Automatic annotation (TrEMBL), chains A, B:
The keyword Ribosomal protein does not apply. Gene3D superfamilies: Nucleoside Triphosphate Pyrophosphohydrolase (3.90.79.10), Winged helix-like DNA-binding domain superfamily/Winged helix DNA-binding domain (1.10.10.10). This is NUDIX hydrolase. InterPro entries: NUDIX_hydrolase-like_dom_sf, NUDIX_hydrolase_dom, WH-like_DNA-bd_sf, WH_DNA-bd_sf, WHD_NrtR. One of its GO terms (molecular function) is hydrolase activity. Keywords: Hydrolase. PROSITE patterns: NUDIX (PS51462). The lineage of its organism: Bacteria, Pseudomonadati, Bacteroidota, Cytophagia, Cytophagales. It comes from the Bacteria. Residues 19-172 form the Nudix hydrolase domain.
Amino acid sequence: MNSEEEVNDFVKNGHQQYLPHLSIDPVIFGYHDQQLKILLHKWIGLDGWGLPGGFIRRREPLSQAAHRILQERTGLEDLFLQQFHVFGDSPYRLQERSAREFTEKYGLVVEKDNWLFERTLSIGYFALVDYSKVSVRTDFFTTDYRWWDISDIPPLLFDQNEVVDKALATLRLQIYHQPIGLNLLPEKFTLSEIHSLYETILGKELDQRNFAKKLVSLGLIKKLAEQRAIGPHRSPYLYQFEKDAYENALKQGIVHTY
Amino acid sequence: MNSEEEVNDFVKNGHQQYLPHLSIDPVIFGYHDQQLKILLHKWIGLDGWGLPGGFIRRREPLSQAAHRILQERTGLEDLFLQQFHVFGDSPYRLQERSAREFTEKYGLVVEKDNWLFERTLSIGYFALVDYSKVSVRTDFFTTDYRWWDISDIPPLLFDQNEVVDKALATLRLQIYHQPIGLNLLPEKFTLSEIHSLYETILGKELDQRNFAKKLVSLGLIKKLAEQRAIGPHRSPYLYQFEKDAYENALKQGIVHTY
DNA sequence: TTTGTATTCCGTAAATTTTACGGAATATTT
DNA sequence: AAATATTCCGTAAAATTTACGGAATACAAA
């Protein structure tokens, strides 16, 4: 959606294609090189940073909409994506927005009862991706984007700081119950790599040896015979996820601590 | 909403008062006397059992709407009520319903594009109450109700069996991380009572002694000096929740097993 | 070839938590 | 006083979690 024609059509006729009152706002966590970031877009007019949201098509299943929006924004398919909460309490979520303001900011003429100004509840999803593999796309409303370190999130639009906080809390709770890493690490990875991943996401240190013991004893990873030469020091062995156990743990959940 | 006038107004003009495309469908778990049940209403016309749902007012915060709906249906305020999932994937949730059918079943004349026939996503909440303290109210659409044992849920409308299953799974997972019982047990209760409560909810046996030890060691309950005379046998001591620890555990979560 | 550097690899003992389990105590009824 | 029904208590074994340091090794530089 970038040409003026498309944008106009979206604003004027979007309600025919999309459900009003609802948006999907994904918190996209990007991990790479021991850093955990989230993807934010700069919304023009509103002049602030916000989540890369989208709308649900009228005959589109909810989870499909979430995947589509993520795909449109990042080019990624088939990743860890999970619904975590609906936000509909904050004053921002109760307010209807003004058409005049919109016209001033975007230079588009719209009617007062345009669907975009109605009260909108936000369905929060979060995803976990390798941000070095993402090619972010912007559009008419979002001209710029940036990956922000989670320790350094700027003030966001509406109640989206709350959304991000809750997403992070959910992710950190979840990692105790479900495995993570399948699409974030190379097919074959070292213990250090997966260890760093978990430490970074949880934001705290984990004993290297006990951590590895735990994952192995849960049957989630297995040691390969291969090693990887990466520098002037002993070469680490490579590990692989046990797909079956991994899938199973995703579904069933695991009860444990690290 | 019971007079014909009110119902007509709701059907015709409800969209002015309520958000379309969204409903709140609470799964109300009722516990009493070692039985765990859920509240279902018999929906006339649709001729089946379903959850006692409701709609969100246009300027009403989401969680307030959930509490209101519960209050309207059960008379209860201030109880354990929690959002757990949005349902928008099942074919039922994509379908729009037909006006003709509606007219046939309810004898109300409605237009084809009435708001009630549009695709509706369901925001799932679950609550936990003492069903002996509930006075259920019905309305024009729901003439009858019944508490159904969770092991014996009938086929429900739409995708609501899935909703109920997920609610139960969430409850059972949650009880490992957050305390339960504050509004389900008397102010002062015996170990047997709280033990039965947990066994019933989890649907499995828990060692009596270890269970009590755990709750005490977590600081969630404390033993009182009083006993309660209840039969031709030794009288049990009474216990009370430690409110502070309880509230704290609700917020922070506990990591443990039983 | 040797030496230095950076990183990986491994295992055990102590502490804590969880599990398993049975017999004595006691309030009431007969 | 005896019978009945239920509560109360504690310990030992098993399992899990935690804490922790020194030898091995791949490469680079001398």
